[in-house]
Specification:
The protein is built from 17 helices and 16 strands. About 35% of the residues lie in helices and about 20% in strands. The protein has four domains: about 1-165, Nucleotidyltransferase, domain 5 (2-Layer Sandwich); about 175-270, GIY-YIG endonuclease (3-Layer(aba) Sandwich); about 275-365, no CATH class; about 375-445, no CATH class. A hairpin with a 4-residue loop joins β2 and β3. It has helices at about 50-55, 60, 65-80, 90-100, 115-120, 130-135, 145-165, 180-185, 210-220, 225-235, 245-260, 265-270, 305-320, 340, 355-365, 410-415, 425-440, and strands at about 1-10, 20-25, 30-40, 80-85, 110, 190-195, 205-210, 235-240, 275-280, 285-295, 300-305, 375-380, 385-395, 395-405, 420, 440-445. It is of the alpha+beta class and about 450 residues long. A five-stranded mixed β-sheet has the order 3-2-1-4-5, with helices on both faces.
Amino acid sequence: MFAIIDVETTGLNSGKDKITEIAILLYDGKKIYDSYETLVNPEMQIPYRISQLTGIQNTMVKSAPKFYEIAKKIIQLTEGKIIVGHNVRFDYKFLQKEFKEYDYEYKRKTLCTVKTSRKLIPGQASYSLSKLSANLSISHHNQHRAMGDALATASLFELLLSIEPGIGGDEAIKLPSALSKAKIQALTHETGVYYFLNNKKEIIYVGKSIDIHQRILQHLNNYSTRKSIEMINQIADIKYIVTGGELTALLLESDEIKNIKPLFNRAQRRSIYLYGLFQTIDNGGYYCFSIARTNTNKQAITSFKSLKTAKEFLFKLTEDYELCQAKNGLYTHKGACFNYQINKCKGACIEKENPEEYNLRFQHSLKQLQFQHNNFFILEKGPEIGQKNIIKIENGIYQGFGIIDENDINDRAILHQSINRKSNNKDTQNIINSHLRLHHPDILIY
């Protein structure tokens, strides 16, 4: 399954330029079965030279949706598919950058029709889309507009498939000797978490996908790095858990990686959070932050991989909200803290500022670390019909998730009892915040 994509932008630099138009064609290897196109408000001016090239004017995008308004649609259309583009690296980099602004890591396998054309149709004077289209009698209308270029790319890709069937697709997959085609065909297309096991029944990789079947096929067809080849050669079995909802899958994946520490999740398994940020109150009635080792007895507001990272974060938070270094354990000498001496603390350290005023500013700083509501459940699709996944936030802190029957959705006691307690850390905070921003799921405040 493929998603043929083209984007138009305000310029060539993905670091500072933005998307102005996107077109997506869903292609099953034989025909286009769905399409999507829209102008995008880049929230910046389109340079005159770009408008001359594409024909997209500032007035045209003024009322167009902003990227965050179409982000969910793009995720849904491209999940489990190989992104195809002419010089696909350009389009893919812009998409990744746009998603990164909302703390969402957008990852898809890609296939470039420029590189593939050079391999399968050698000897062309130029491999630009317009020149290839002309030389190969491919219809290419509305050049430098997203849908026009995407349609031409689709026709070129169809030609490339006729030369070498199975480019990037299922036919090209060479299964590890321990896996059968029947095993792969039996994999679900549902959302959930999957596990690769070696011949010792050890879990060597944990992943998540909206379409487990398609994502595993991508893994088995990925020979681009030594690590991926090594992992494929070790796969002896595949297991999975259907979650139904994407947020639950993301949270379960993150938790499993930290607990199991699979060999091929090296980057994620290093995400062990040893130090937490906690809230206390001193004898004078001042709210304080403190840094301590994480444990299961007390829930941290947020957590960090090292003491150094935790202190750097707390120093910045203290400075941004004019809090007191002494109250937050960052200044251990007697008397006024360093920030007071440079007029960045209002004197809580020497009781010059009363606790009420100080605590109000402290509470404002907490909002940066917490969710919009203090106590709520996030509701999403469950693993089976008639079920709901629930994710619990209490006092602004992630508590865990569970499954309930839809008929019990208004029974608060059942909701609380159904939660399986999980760790709160930077990863879970980022996952939940990003999901709330991009998907706007149903929530139940309690």
